[in-house]
Amino acid sequence: MSRFLLISALHLAASVVSLGAAEPARPNIVLIYADDLGYGDISCQGATRVSTPNIDRLAKEGLRFTDGHSSSATCTPSRFSMLTGEYAFRQKGTGVLPGDAGLIIKPGRTTLPSILQKAGYKTGVVGKWHLGLGEGNVDWNQDVKPGPLEIGFDSSYIMAATGDRVPCVYVKDHKVVGLDPSDPIKVSYKTPFPGEPTGKANPEMLKMHPSHGHDMALINGISRIGYMTGGKSARWVDEDFADVITREAVSFIEQNKAQPFFLFFATHDIHVPRVPHPRFVGKTPMGPRGDAIAQLDWSVGEVLATLDRLKLAENTLVIFSSDNGPVVDDGYKDDAVTKLGDHKPAGPWRGGKYSRFEGATRVPFIVRWPTKVKPGTSDALVCQVDLSASLAALTGQTVAKGDAPDSLNVLPALLGESKEGRDHLVEHAASLSLRKGTWKLITPAQGPKVSKNTNTETGADPQAQLFDLAKDPGETTNVARSHPDVELEMKAMIQKVVSE
Ligand code: NG6
Ligand code: CA
């Protein structure tokens, strides 16, 4: 072989090798996002009064995180952070939204789905949205936009906000599903519509009564937040939520099996109103809240079975998590309190949804990818806000400086290649807290110690609270006095993150 040919051959070989090494992985990605599911609500994390075999299967075949977090103690800010890679406290108006709110993610902005779209993925969202639609004055009878399709999803099948908020209809891409144009929908969060029943005026029509709030539009025997009229043919039936959105999730996978896809499957379970399908009623001794967990587990099972059936499971990265911690009474008399027994929705953590304690954001967090991720558990500190940077890294995308500003590439931790996750994390509830290693600082906050309606420990205290979670995982003993240096350092760190 001539010298020239030899060198060319070596070059070729080298470039093939480097091409191979640089070739980004493109597994399918399924992000299953439960609503209000606590750390202790699944049987692989201690639950005994409900069994979650499918979620447990994910944990057994994947990596289960013991320090995995949602970005916030409530839904909208958690979803905002997860999809944008930005802490929600940086943008005003990212609190729990009414169902007629405008879209809070600016169209054109870099998002988790737009990153994956650029990487060649087909992207879809199915289920609960709760990030606003339109520009604040949406007409539900016309094209409902901007929405998911304008921020990086190729398809969407969603409920606009939550099951307990109007409008009680599904929106597919830009259209309300099943709408009869001769019966237009109107929505108001201020004034009732004459002639329409409400929970307050017509309690005799209710099959489930509110415990606090939720006494407005009465639809399917359940009263909601906000008023609506019209759209009778399009109205959802709560008992069918899981069936409808699971069917849509399965169909998205089937339709996109030939190329890499990203499915954001955001379940309604186990948010209120908890009205599982009759086939799940009585599956647990805990009433509708427990039965909704069983139903959620069924949905997970259907997705896993679809991946198996289509022979996609091996090369699909499944992430299972929840948007915030648990709440028992979130506004309906559904026996959740009376039938709780010794079930611990937040597992070993204190507090839950709305709280500043760990139970608010330390949620189930499981990653399964059979060809890449070794089964086991990980104590690495990871957060949903990190998915943008981490999945960008996985798929060979670069995220411009300033986009996804709070998202860290923790891919090695997510794949179990490293025990190290984040160095620190800002936890977001009504005010900010900080985790650094096993330390937790809750900044001073006014307000009641317990929210009366939901019976949640808020974590509010006029004094700073410092906990050493290694010794005191239940956040019972404030050690700020004996560790003033740690408190000072963490206070400064929060200020730095806030001002960045
Ligand atoms: C609260 C609702 C609660 C739930 C929550 C949002 C009342 C009294 N309570 O305001 O039921 O809907 O908002 O939950 O209206 S989340 O999971 O979407 O953040
Ligand atoms: Ca939630």
Automatic annotation (TrEMBL):
Domain spans labelled Sulfatase N-terminal: 27-396
Record-level Gene Ontology MF annotations: hydrolase activity
Entries under PROSITE patterns matching the protein: SULFATASE_1, SULFATASE_2
Signal peptide segment: 1-21
Keyword set, alphabetical order: Hydrolase, Signal
Top-level taxon: Bacteria
Similarity comment: family membership: Belongs to the sulfatase family.
Protein name (Swiss-Prot/TrEMBL): Arylsulfatase A-like enzyme
Organism annotation: Roseimicrobium gellanilyticum
